[in-house]
Amino acid sequence: MPDLSPEAMRAEFWSLDAQIKAIHAQTDPLREARDEQSRAADAALKILNDEINEIEAPLYELKQQQARISRFLEGKTGPAPAE
Amino acid sequence: MVAFAKYNSFVEELAEKAHNLQSDTFKAALTNTAPAASDTTWSTGTYPAPAAANGYTAGGNTLTVSSSGQSSGLYKWVLADSVFTASGGQIGPFRYLIIYNSTASNKLVGSYDRGSSVTLEDGDTFTADFDATNGVLQLQ
């Protein structure tokens, strides 16, 4: 029969609290290290993403234009010209 | 363009940061094999593709994200149309177009079914005409 007295319940409450804090004490530094690595990787990726976006800026309109021509020709665009 | 069918795993992977719909490299591959919503990863084993020849590139076409943004809480993922042109021979047969994320280990996003198989003859073009207004997919 569990002890349901207020004193026992308070003791159980604080025992659980200590276990929770002990786990967080172990993982919080790991989380901070993981998040720092993630931020550094994001920063490095952003440099490449910005470069890609700058080069590819005209790509959307080029592809849309090519698709419009393809639809106009009903798919009969012909093969690629010889290089 | 016919209806977009998402893969089941995509929604969870999206929630768990596997996809960056703005900056990852997404590809459109052709296949004659019907997609299963439970599939998770694109490969030519799962989705046999046309030979990488006659204008078809191994892995399919790289897609261009036109916009990835929200307005009043409604997010739209808009892609530029993508053209496949047979040149020097045939491409196909194929019926389905599969969109997957090549940045994220070829995780599957969704597919389209054109309704019947087709083979592109030399000089023919297949255009994936993505919805420029509503996007390929929306989130809210």
Question: What gross morphology of chain B would you assign?
Answer: globular
How confident is the prediction overall: mean pLDDT of chain B? 96
Shape of chain A: elongated
By secondary-structure content and strand pairing, the structural class of chain A works out as mainly alpha
Calculate Rg of chain A over CA atoms. 31 Å
What is the number of helices of chain A?
2
Care to describe what's here?
The complex is a heterodimer of chains A (83) and B (140). Chain A is mostly helical and 83 residues long. Chain A has helices at residues 6-55, 59-72. Chain A is elongated and about 85 Å long. Chain A contains two helices and no strands. Helix content of chain A is 77%, strand content 0%. Chain B has 140 residues and is mainly β. Helix content of chain B is 6%, strand content 42%. Chain B is built from one helix and ten strands, in the order E-H-E-E-E-E-E-E-E-E-E. In chain B, the strands form three sheets. Chain B has a five-stranded antiparallel beta sheet with strand order 1-8-7-2-3. The longest helix of chain B has 8 residues, at 8-15. Chain A binds chain B through residues 45, 49, 52, 56, 59-60, 63-64, 66-67, 70-71, 73, 75-80, and chain B through 23, 55, 64, 66, 80-83, 85-88, 120, 122-127, 129, 132.
Write the layout of secondary structure elements.
The complex is a heterodimer of chains A (83) and B (140).
Chain A (H helix, E strand, L loop, with lengths): L5 H50 L3 H14 L11
Chain B lengths: L4 E2 L1 H8 L10 E6 L29 E2 L2 E7 L2 E6 L2 E4 L5 E11 L5 E14 L4 E4 L8 E3 L1
Antiparallel strand pairs in B: 1-8, 2-3, 2-7, 4-5, 5-10, 6-9, 7-8
